[in-house]
From TrEMBL, chain A:
This is APC family permease. It is a multi-pass membrane protein. Its main location: membrane. It comes from the Bacteria. It comes from Rhodococcus antarcticus.
From TrEMBL, chain B:
Residues 1-59 form the HTH iclR-type domain. The keyword RNA-binding does not apply. PANTHER family: HELIX-TURN-HELIX TRANSCRIPTIONAL REGULATOR, ICLR FAMILY, HTH-TYPE TRANSCRIPTIONAL REPRESSOR ALLR. The keyword Transcription regulation applies. Residues 48-235 form the IclR-ED domain. Keywords: DNA-binding, Plasmid, Transcription, Transcription regulation. This is Helix-turn-helix domain-containing protein. It comes from Rhodococcus antarcticus.
Amino acid sequence: MVVTPPQTGWTRAESPVAGLRRRGLTLTQVLAQSVAAVAPSAAMVTLPGIVIAEVGSAAIACFAVAAAIVFLVGYCLSHFARRMASASGLYSYTAKGLGPVAAFTAGWALMIGYLGIALASVLASALYFTSLIELVGLAAAGSTVVLSATIPVLAGLAALLMVRGIKLSARVALGLEVTSIALILAALAILKINQAEGITAPPASTGRLTIDAVGLGVVLAVTSFVGFESAGTLGVEAKRPLVSIARAMRWLPLVLGVLYLVAVTAQVATLAAAPLDIGRSPTPVADLTRLRGDTALSAVIDIGVAASFFACIIGSGNAFVRIVFSMGREGIFPTVLGRTHRRYATPHIATVALLTLLVFVPLIMVVAHTAPRTSLVALLTLSAFGYLTSYTLVCIATPTFLWRIGELTARPLLAGIVASLTMGTIIYAAFAATLSADSSVPIAFLLTMVTGWLLLGAIWLNDRSRLRNIGVYDETLTRDVYIGVTPYGNDMAETDGR
Amino acid sequence: MTALEVLEKVATSGTGVTAKEIAHSLGLPPATTYRLLNILVAEGYLVRLADLTGFALGQRMGRLLGPTRPPTVCHAAHQLVTQLRENIRFAICLVCYYPPTTVQVVDADPDHALQADDTWVRHLHASAVGKLLLSEQGDWRDIFPERHLVAITAHTITSPADMDSQVVKFRERGVAHQLGELRSTTACYAVPVRSVSGALVGALAISGPLERQEALAELVQPMRDCADQLGPLLA
């Protein structure tokens, strides 16, 4: 069989993403990183409450539908993950399917997603820690000083862990997540039992179950899964990237789906009976326990959620800096951001850049006296738009990528079409819902995207060859190819004839 | 079983074969082929090339085929070979021998693409590097049975007597060659790389079109000089 060689040799001698610690993370650690970026225990006590407030007991169905949709996205992603080990996940995946412009759009949107979640996590973990400090009586309630002091400490600690090595941050994240999920599940169980014993009001039927409300419920439920794809940024660092990352992407939506269904089922009865403003609170479950005067349980929930949010700073932060690092390597961002620490093999410059944002943005929000709930919801909504945009693009990219490499089959084609249409609809619904309520967040998102495109345009005008670098990943290197079998190939005569 | 067939197909088709071509030539359903390929790549038996379309054998195949020592050369040795390549238009590569009969490329010519294929390892009697190894033995039959003298091209040596005389000649001259015996259009010369104690540890080989064999032969002396310097570095 005659094989046409590509124009530019088969392989490179050095990986374009060299510098990260190669092949160290186990499947558990890859999962831990993804779970940390999702922050499921924080989501378990906040999002179900909000969805229940919208649709009542139909929240269970909303979460089930959301799990199915996210599973479909994960299925699409796994087709990339099984074929390429990347340090920037969906960004490089989209590049291989749709080219540089779509890839940049997806990458930029995903960065908004990770950054938004990381910022929200700094703020939220600081809020929960402060609430914990207040609970034990060390500070007066609503103290801005304590909150402002907590923010740089938490952000700095997270950044330190991120720089000290991916393995360490994965381990810490795993420990924190396991603890917090266990705490929250226990707290929910206790709450449920207490509720059953001292039941005073019948579970309120909201009685206003509209298509719009259910749609919004599904959208909100989908946002509780975002971050599951962050395993895709560990392609270089995972031990068996083509196996473990693809698995993480396929399993996580299912595992998270089960967790959320448990949490939402436990809360449907409890919260539906509670005053409506509890469901609207940023910390509904904690408030509920506080309302009942159950200080110990409240503290347990606060610890659990604070730990989960702190792990989420690390999880989303790690994913964020790896995209920045990849863009630094491509020359899309200043190349200094593409440097790695000599000893810890992490993108330390990109992490320092992230740390600056993580400290100052929440501090400004606190100092500006924005209500914590408003800041949190704004950041989370902004990041949700980012995630959903990149999911839509990568789902479109799935069949085109497989077609390009000549490996398209019926199932991924179907999955790609269904998933991208569903994600498109969800973005539209999310946009419509937020626009009608408060247009500032969607506008802020659009402005950020436009800023990104302007940057891309500037690069295009300046040196368009750099756009061709978009989508760097951990390629097969010359030394990975087994050539011990023969040095004198069929193409020898042609090569020498030139 | 099918996985092994896929593996074999990549080995025989050469670097860069695509999933579609493999599915087609094996008559397998595409989805099955792609799944097997992905598993073999994930396990390191195969690699997906940088264009994400082509496949090649992965380093893990080396473990299956024998040597456990990774094919690496020190920087100084690599520098020497690179220097030699600078003014030569032919393909120069450095190989190492692993007892009893394994030959592994440790420094392939970056300007001349190699093709994965197994003719070389199996047919020591047809390659210059193989014949150099045979001529090093007291009796070449110890490591290479007579029945393995099969014809690969019209010029391949198939008679044991011819092999006897060639081996003696190569041993005396300290250089082995093959002239259109492995592929009808290429010629190759190989000079030994010896450790300080004189043991054969590797070979430096130069190959090019058969019609340029005189030009190739003239380059044997510079090759020897380089090989002498390489010896202490490889042992």
